[in-house]
Amino acid sequence: MTFVIEMRPSERVVIDSAVLDDVFNRYGHRGAEDYVMEAVEAISDTLAEVDALGREDRLAEIAPRAQAVSRRSADIGLTSLAKVARDMGIAARRGDVIAYRAVWERLVRIGDRSLATVWMEPRLSL
User: Fold this and answer.
1) Are 15 and 114 in contact (CB under 8 A)?
2) Average pLDDT over every residue of 80-100
3) In this structure, are residues 4 and 104 in contact, taking their beta carbons and an 8 Å threshold?
4) Nearest CA to 117 among 80, 88, 92?
5) Would you tell me how many other CB atoms lie within 10 Å of the CB of residue 26?
6) Is the pLDDT confidence value at 11 over 90?
7) What's the pLDDT at 57?
8) C-alpha span between 5 and 12 (Å, rounded)
9) What is the pTM of this model?
């Protein structure tokens, strides 16, 4: 008898609403929309670069990009995405391809859900 187990990883997405509140207080409604949109685009663009570099196992070039994703994510309250991006940078810096790929898959899951959650933020008309 063969058993097949299907694993469906579930990631908890954490968004710090206090950080978003601060962005709205600092920039006003329209400015906050622009700031968040710019951050989301920068995160998405950088992750596309990371994906291409990862396919070529160019881990040394990934670490600074992972740090940038972590910083931009934290700037708009995407706490879980920021933490996983930091972990990805650590794995890349160490040259650990297996750990990097595992963390990359986790980052993709969390990133998709985090960015989708930001898009649905009621204060943003993105």
Assistant:
1) yes
2) 96
3) no
4) 80
5) 10
6) no
7) 87
8) 22
9) 0.86
* CA 64 – CA 17 distance, rounded (Å): 26
Q: Provide the β-strand partners of residue 78.
A: 15
CA 50/CA 107 separation, integer angstroms:
11
Contact 60, 23 (CB under 8 A): no
DSSP assignment, residue 122? T
Given pLDDT bands bounded at 50, 70 and 90, which one contains residue 112?
A: confident
- CA-to-CA dists, residue 87 to 102, 104, 105, angstroms: 10, 9, 12
Q: What span, in angstroms and rounded, lies between the C-alpha atoms of 34 and 40?
A: 10
Quickly state the pLDDT bin for 10 (edges 50, 70, 90). low
- Residue 116: how many other CB atoms lie within 10 Å: 10
- What is the DSSP secondary structure assignment for residue 59, as one 8-state letter? G
Q: Which two tokens stand for residue 119?
A: 């898009």
